[in-house]
Amino acid sequence: MEVLVIASQKGGAGKTTLAVHLATEAASSRRVLLMDVDPQGSAIEWAQRRGDAAPDVSAIHPATIAREVERARAEGYELVVIDTAPHADSAALQAARLADLVVIPCRPATFDLAAIGATLDLCKLANKQAVVILNAAPIRSRVTTEAAEAVAERGGKVSAVVVHQRVAYQHCLIDGRTAGEFEPNGAAANEITALLADLKSSKSAAPQPEKLTNLKASKPVNTSAKKPVKQKVEVT
């Protein structure tokens, strides 16, 4: 079983949106559990609107993360995605220590870039590999390249895939869907498919910043075509 942790010590980075999209995309071919460790419970609210479709989603108390990960392993899950809370050093560190990979979403904005050092330091403390995802980036703007350079200067590895600011990411969440289900074959769907593939091959060298905004993504998997898996929404 693999554990993917979505972490950012900066609020408003888009962690939950990224978490539900990656978990749903992976659930097209694997048994996935999304753990909502954020007290705000946004992932749980999304799951309640979604109904019985995969992935399974559980609300987890920070103190029980390690135990719940082991329970997921025993229950046969192939991937656990953990959506952590911002400004929660202790809980995020516990989650990071359990991770196979830590994903750090970061908007290409001044305050977000200034704050990313805290999350990178947390990953170093946990001795875990981390990948920074430039999230909610403007389309066709040099600011994305500049942000990638700024992250690299801070010692962060930047994903080749940029997640752009697109209306599909907002509209799809209203009724518990993802961008790939809301607009199959759309640009947002392509980005998530490409991002999951990039994370799977995260051992590859970090790309040059100038290549980041020119990614041609592969055709997405239509998760809506998959037979729904009964969802487990529980609070522990």
Report on this model:
- By secondary structure, this protein is of the alpha/beta class.
- The protein has a single domain, classed as Rossmann fold (3-Layer(aba) Sandwich).
- The protein is 39% helix and 14% strand.
- The chain has helices at residues 15-26, 42-50, 65-74, 89-98, 110-126, 142-153, 167-171, 179-182, 187-200; strands at residues 2-6, 32-36, 56-59, 79-83, 101-106, 130-134, 233-235.
- The chain has a seven-stranded parallel sheet, sandwiched between helices.
- α5 links the parallel β5 (101-106) and β6 (130-134).
- It is globular and about 45 Å long.
How are the SSEs ordered, and which strands pair?
Blueprint lengths: L1 E5 L8 H12 L5 E5 L5 H9 L5 E4 L5 H10 L4 E5 L5 H10 L2 E6 L3 H17 L3 E5 L7 H12 L13 H5 L7 H4 L4 H14 L32 E3 L1
Parallel strand pairs: 1-4, 1-5, 2-3, 2-4, 3-7, 5-6
Helix pairs in contact: 1-9, 4-5
At the first level of CATH, the class is Alpha Beta
Assign the CATH topology: Rossmann fold
CATH architecture term: 3-Layer(aba) Sandwich
Distance between the termini: 21 Å
Mean pLDDT metric: 88
Classified in CATH, the superfamily is: P-loop containing nucleotide triphosphate hydrolases
Quick structural overview:
With 236 residues, this protein is α/β, with parallel strands linked by helices.
Which properties best describe this structure?
236 residues; alpha/beta; globular; McdA; CobQ/CobB/MinD/ParA nucleotide binding domain-containing protein
